[in-house]
Amino acid sequence: MSRLLHVSASPRGARSESLALAATFLDTYRELDPLATVDTLDLWDGTLPEFGPAAAAAKMAIFAGEQPEGAAAQAWERATATFRRFDSYDRYLFSVPMWNAGIPYVLKQFIDVVSQPGMVFGFDPTDGYTGLLTGKKAVLLLTSAVYGPGRGPAFGSDFQGPYLRDWLNWAGVTDVEEVSFRPNLATGDADAARERAHEEARRLAAKL
Question: Could you tell me which CATH number the domain at 3-206 has?
């Protein structure tokens, strides 16, 4: 039985295009696999731990083969708990709006919290990094209101999709699919582009 975690990075609720795509995907996924476990991690619900000085100290202690102490140990426990929840799933759905050519800061915070040695990655001084999240699959639902392929530099750049794909591959998740909704509002084709994006979300839900 599959276990799917929807990581929601949009704070816009019913007005969010990325969350609308996620709803289409999840409805299809549940319909086709009614026994699957499907949960949502809302990154805006206030439960995501920070990654500040104590957490950074804990990470460097682990790198040095030491055990964190005091506030660092508490921060490490919170990071570990967040990672264990994430790692307990074998399928991931990320719904992500584009913010300033990249991803919302709260998603970067999540990535920084879980990307720890011995959890998301291993490291060897000679061979470098090894991703530890192997055997998992992910789908990215990416939206943007201005940027779009072929629109020129005045309409922005894409550090959203490339960053997420690179992070997932680095972490060991190499089976990654993507749905993009980037309508060209100037030509009035938003409805047609939206329909195509939702159809692609349904197709990938059946495939995942």
Answer: 3.40.50.360
